[in-house]
Amino acid sequence: MTNRLNGFVHKIMDERLNVLSARVLHKGDLIAQWDRNQDTRRLQHSISKSFTCMAVGLAIEEGLLHLHSTLGDYFTYDSSPTSITETMFPPQQLMLVDLLRMSSGHDNPPLHLEERTSLEEKDWVKYYMSLPLDRMPGKQFTYSSGDTFMISALFQAATGQTVKDYLTPRLFEPLGIHDVDWETSPLGVTLGCAGLWISNEELSRFGQLLLQEGNWKGQQLIPVEWIRCATRRQIITSADGDWGKGYGFQFWMCSHDAYRADGAHGQLCIILPAQQAVISINSEEDQMQQILNAVWTEILPILS
């Protein structure tokens, strides 16, 4: 199986890209795989966001949330009078749809990794709600892990369960992904934006579920319409390469009419509906566009 990835492996080696694991599924079958050493559970970073999105779709189907649910519907923290002015927008007005497409209106998105590790305030929801928005929500994309953490917190407030606990019987166990480790906030909210530990092979199963529009072994785990909604462009992104193709609900659009979940340092789950293919990659590499370029030049041709 590895010989089908020889071109990809040679390219990443030539370019000194620290890719650790690759899996290629075509029409539901594993057609190629490669591991630098072995496939182990690794931190998937922002791929976690796409799993959180699945929980939201299920909660909407159950009538526990809707896209126009606001933070103010569930959180009653008073904004600091010193931080909110008449010209600013209070975060209480933020809707779930704004958070899903990362259009919350922050110039400097809160709760990024460095801030999370140093923040003295243990109630991250309270902290997020204390910060005024810099512009009207829903108009401009700004990548924000804080937005996804708030999705997780909103979900927990609406359902009474953490995202991890909710997804365990509904998604993880049906996919055969057991004993999942997913980091939490100091107050026990599933991080949502990051913190999920799974293997690349387990990630490829998630990708196959997405390709099959939520169906797994005859069981509809996620509503078809939610998969379609989340994985089409919901907002324009201003960037180069595959980061400039637009953003859905916690998914990136990319070249070749594909979409992807991705995480820092080269974690990728690429879905190619036209080719009926899934490509999952784990790495410790910041040159993510170069990894994607190698996918397009070296893996895409073997899918024809």
Gross morphology is: globular
Sequence of secondary-structure elements: HEEEHHHHHHEEHEEHEEEEH
Major sheet characteristics: 6 strands, antiparallel
Supply Rg: 19 Å
- Considering DSSP H and I runs of 4 or more, what fraction of the residues is helical? 25-40%
Which percent band covers the strand fraction?
15-25%
**Helix count from the secondary structure assignment:** 10
- Helical/strand content category: alpha+beta
Identify low-pLDDT runs.
81-87
- How many runs of DSSP E, i.e. beta strands? 11
Give the N-to-C terminal Cα separation: 17 Å
Strand arrangement in the largest pleated sheet: 2-1-11-10-9-8
Domain Beta-lactamase-related: 13-285
Pfam families: Beta-lactamase
Protein name: CubicO group peptidase (Beta-lactamase class C family)
List keywords for this structure.
CubicO group peptidase (Beta-lactamase class C family), Beta-lactam-related, alpha+beta, 10 helices, 304 residues, Beta-lactam/transpept-like, 32% helix
How would you describe this protein?
The chain is an alpha+beta fold. 32% of the residues lie in helices and 16% in strands. The chain has 10 helices and 11 strands. A 6-stranded antiparallel β-sheet has the order 2-1-11-10-9-8, sandwiched between helices. Strand 9 and strand 10 (267-272) form a beta hairpin. The chain is globular and about 60 Å long. The model is unreliable at 81-87 (pLDDT under 50).
Brief overview, please?
The chain has helices at residues 6-14, 47-61, 96-100, 113-118, 124-129, 145-159, 163-172, 200-211, 224-230, 288-299; strands at 19-26, 29-35, 42-43, 181-182, 196-198, 215-216, 219-220, 252-254, 258-263, 267-272, 277-283. With 304 residues, the chain is an alpha+beta fold.
